[in-house]
Automatic annotation (TrEMBL):
Gene3D superfamilies: 3.30.530.20
Protein species of origin: Brachybacterium saurashtrense
Similarity annotation: Belongs to the AHA1 family.
SUPFAM superfamilies registered for this protein in UniProt: Bet v1-like
Protein name listed in UniProt: SRPBCC domain-containing protein
């Protein structure tokens, strides 16, 4: 299981996920840079993702939807803010309507994803900051921790 730690801090409004992968940084980067690979790991196994738009460049946009077991769709987006290939990227992460306009009724966050060489593998750290306690609490209640563990376990399968 690649996720080694998930912690949240209601005072600093952060959710921090730490994972280790048995592949070099460049290989893990390719998963995020390639929409077909990203959709194999973005979202829990029960909610596979379909990436519609993908531009992992500053100012770029990534749009996707996850399809649930009953055929229900959950749309989302990343607005890419900064990229330091292959070491990090920062993006606004939000829920979206079917036309991929932001759904401001649900939390919007900023995530900094950092990939660091760790022996023969990669240490990945994802720090997500929310605007308020309610936003962080909402995603915790939606099952973000369990969903993240399920989604990231698929990275091991992809790099094997």
């Amino acid at each position: 299981m690649p996720v080694t730690d998930i912690s949240h801090d209601l005072d600093s409004l952060t959710l921090t996920i730490t994972a280790r992968f048995a592949a070099p940084v460049e290989r893990i980067w390719q998963i995020y840079a390639d929409p077909r690979q990203l959709e194999r790991v973005w979202g829990p196994k029960e909610y596979p993702a379909t990436v519609v738009d993908h531009s992992l460049t500053p100012g770029g946009l990534v749009t996707y939807y996850m399809t649930g077991p009953e055929g229900d769709r959950h749309h989302g987006y990343w607005k890419v803010l900064a990229v330091d290939e292959p070491h990090s990227f920062t993006y606004e992460d939000g829920f979206a309507h079917e036309d991929f306009t932001p759904n401001t009724d649900l939390p919007i966050s900023t995530c900094v994803a950092t990939l660091t060489a760790d022996g023969d593998g990669t240490l990945a750290r994802y720090v997500t900051t929310y605007a308020d306690r309610e936003g962080l609490q909402t995603v915790l209640e939606m099952g973000v921790e369990e969903g993240t563990r399920s989604a990231m376990s698929q990275i091991d399968e992809l790099i094997a």
